Amino acid sequence: MHATLTGTGIGLDIGPVSLKDPKGAVEESKLEQFNATAAYAALSAFRGGLSPACQGQDATITVRNIHEGTPEASWSSVKLSRPGHTMTIQHATINAVETNPDLRMKVNGTGIHDSKQPLIPSALSADLTVHGLSGASQQITINALHAISGSSTVDGTGTIQIGSSAATSTADTHVSITNIADLIEKIHQTAPTKVVTALTIARLMGRQNGDTTSWDIALQGGVVTVNRIPLPIAVP
Fold first, then answer.
1. How far, CA to CA in Å, does 197 sit from each of 26, 60, 111, 123, 171?
2. Would you tell me the crossing angle of helices 28-47 and 59-66 to the nearest 10 degrees?
């Protein structure tokens, strides 16, 4: 399978693709549409946002088509690429575990490698619920997020209200990292100095509990707070 994100130069290539609905309620053409929507989401995430050429896409169409089932896409040998930047994933699954009234998705990826981002984990799993698909704005609940990077693990929960920009969006999240010192040491030789510095400062701002460092991170009115401390950064 090959897909591109219009107007961005970003491409997605996938080796074997397996599509199924354990309930047997979603026909093959609708499974293919579900797979195409998952590809669109992967391309947009790799870009870091929606392409202007794709604004106004109606996700409710896909949800209506699958609301009787729990479709799953299984991808192998995945490559996301743009000039100077490549991410590969050995295996990924995207499963719509609930489709009515809200869309709940479980996503898993293993064997992840990124040529440019040293903080990208080698394995990632996420359990997300998207509310208000038919409205002007959507809220995403992070039921669970778990990532592995060397001897460190990252876990997160929270809610994100998506606005027209970061400044009009809101977020209330909790993030924890185990063995953060090992993570800093791991990226010290490969990450830009500003990334190492930011992670070191974050460690100092975190709450310590044994080998776990945690933060409450919020976004409100264009202001980011960490453990209720406003950060002096501009949110676009």
1. 49, 42, 27, 24, 24
2. 140
Question: CA end-to-end span of the chain, whole Å?
Answer: 35
The torsion of the CA quartet 76, 81, 87, 89, rounded to 10 degrees, works out to: 0
DSSP 25: -
3-class DSSP assignment, residue 231: coil
- Helical (H) or strand (E) element with 38: helix 28-47
Q: From residue 164, how far is each of 26, 36, 49 by CA, in Å?
A: 33, 24, 11
What is d(CA 68, CA 96) in angstroms, rounded to the nearest whole number? 11
Phi then psi for residue 159, to 5 deg, are: -135, 145
Q: Taking Cα atoms as reference points, which of 23, 40, 41, 21 lies closest to residue 31?
A: 21
pTM above 0.90, yes or no: no
10-57 pLDDT tens trace: 999 999 999 999 999 999 999 999 999 899 889 988 887 666 656 555
Rounded Cα distance between 203 and 51, Å, is 34
Q: Burial level of 69, CB count in 10 A (0-12/13-18/19+)?
A: buried
**Per-residue pLDDT tens digits for 98-115:** 887 788 999 999 999 999
**C-alpha to C-alpha distance for 53 and 46, rounded to whole angstroms:** 16
Candidates 50, 54, 5; CA nearest to 165 is: 50
Q: 208: buried, middle or exposed (CB in 10 Å: 19+, 13-18, 0-12)?
A: exposed
